[in-house]
Amino acid sequence: MAMPLGFLSTTFSATGTPSLLKSPSLSVQAVSFNAAKLRTSVTYATASSEPATDTKKRAPRGFSKPRPVSPEMRDFLGGRTEIPRTEVLKVIWAHIKQNGLQDPNNKRVIVCDEKLKKIFGEKDQVGFLEIAGLISPHFKKVEN
């Protein structure tokens, strides 16, 4: 017996089979209660209690994979020849924060010092969203 619940557009059914029962990785419990002589069924889904399969730690891929860098970036990084993009961004932001290079009126704008100008193409200031694109040319492609 299906019955709409007023302002809710969902219809609850005490006899229907929820689509969650078809999923093998979920365990489903049905709880029924009687409120104002109205019998409804509420279904709760929980994660499987089976232990996770043994997974090995994956080798870094994409942005987290160390790549060779250009001589300009190597000078900025203090001699490191291979580094992931994520680490480069962390080093750049640490340099920006340590030297107070954010525009005080608009923190989204970075005022470049001489070190940053070398890796950002001699720009006087850059937006924080531009940084990832400006460091891209400093990473050499690696053939597998």
From TrEMBL:
<protein>
    <recommendedName>
        <fullName>DM2 domain-containing protein</fullName>
    </recommendedName>
</protein>
<feature type="domain" description="DM2">
    <location>
        <begin position="62"/>
        <end position="141"/>
    </location>
</feature>
<dbReference type="Pfam" id="PF02201">
    <property type="entry name" value="SWIB"/>
</dbReference>
<dbReference type="InterPro" id="IPR019835">
    <property type="entry name" value="SWIB_domain"/>
</dbReference>
<dbReference type="InterPro" id="IPR036885">
    <property type="entry name" value="SWIB_MDM2_dom_sf"/>
</dbReference>
<dbReference type="InterPro" id="IPR003121">
    <property type="entry name" value="SWIB_MDM2_domain"/>
</dbReference>
<feature type="region of interest" description="Disordered">
    <location>
        <begin position="44"/>
        <end position="76"/>
    </location>
</feature>
